[in-house]
Amino acid sequence: MSDVKKVVLAYSGGLDTSVIIPWLKENYQCEVIAVCANLGQPENFDAIEKKALKSGASKAFVLDLRQEFLEEYVWKVLQAGAVYEGKYLLGTSFARPIIAKALVDIAKQEGADAVAHGATGKGNDQVRFELTVKALAPNLTIIAPWRLWDIKSREDAIAYAEQHQVPINMYASDDPAKPKQPYPYSMDWNIWHLSHEGADLENPANAPHDDMYMVTCDPTKAPDEVTEITLGFVEGVPKTLNGKELSAVEMITELNKIGAANGIGIADIVENRLVGMKSRGVYENPGGAILFYAHRELEYLCLDRATYHFKEQADVRYAELVYDGMWYSPLREALQAFVTETQKTVTGEVGLKLYKGNIMSNGAKSPYSLYNEEFVTFGADEVYNQADAEGFINLFGLPLKIRALMQQKEQK
């Protein structure tokens, strides 16, 4: 432990990471630098910085990573169409690599020899943080207090905080959307999503409470009118909303508002964690749900059958890699090269109707559309000779015919 002189800590402003600061100083006799990543969560970042310093950090960095997060992580996953186990849009999974990268960057800048995080020994986040550090800075020591210390509960953490004069408050935010009373769920919040785990959700038989939602609304309480929107994509990346060009941050912020008002993007899933257990989470992803739906509609129009079908398989593997913390793995990077190539023609506009939690198609167009009305029409045409189908079927079905003839011969 004496070899560690300076530690860069992933700091959220919550109880656990605030307690980690004096714990590191006490157990490693080291300097602690706190790093808070602004990924669009509704926090009072000035208060977080002050709290880190008051808790014993020598320095506190608050980094606005929203644009990089969306453009270099989220949009790439969107292009891949990567959804974990059919429901989870990976909001926490791809947030961890960019935070860990920020820790590494600050560690190099400040001459630190270790990084630390507040992820527990039961979750996926410990893997995501640490694999990123190993990929980017293999010589840095990684400290995970939850795997080392004697603190086992929130009550233990509060007691430790009181002993070490660490300010105790549930949130550093003044945002009115945040609950004023202690919230029973473990949450991860960024510009892309909000997740809820724990408490009554640990029993999959329990339905989510209607008042749990803090981003979107209960679909049954959404307006009785349809909302129509049009999204424009360039090479698989969202660029315009209703004809207006928006930055990445503006795009997801506006889509979150529109989707939330219509009860869009609630996903309730019992997922398979990387560490071997199943866990139940409820995710709020209004803007993300809209984007994934629209992007898929455009791919239906612009990708040929073989590419689309292979990409469906690759997307599943891509999602698993992101979920497993393998963002900087050779396979994820290779799959990204494939995805990027497929997206060169995924340009166009998609119309959508939003209504009480539902997303419905409302027309799509692209200069690269592979749909050809001349060939598919049920009316008269001069480009498709239906008689050609007989030869195709004879050749395509030849293996079936040969097998049937063999079976007939054996039965005699």
TrEMBL record:
GO annotation, cellular component aspect: cytoplasm
Binding residue positions for L-aspartate: T120, N124, D125
Pfam families recorded: Arginosuc_syn_C, Arginosuc_synth
Subcellular location: Cytoplasm
A single GO molecular function term of this UniProt record: argininosuccinate synthase activity
Arginosuccinate synthase C-terminal domain location: 185-402
The Arginosuccinate synthase-like N-terminal domain, residue ranges: 6-167
Top EC group: ligase
Family label: Belongs to the argininosuccinate synthase family. Type 1 subfamily.
PANTHER family per UniProt: ARGININOSUCCINATE SYNTHASE
Protein name: Argininosuccinate synthase
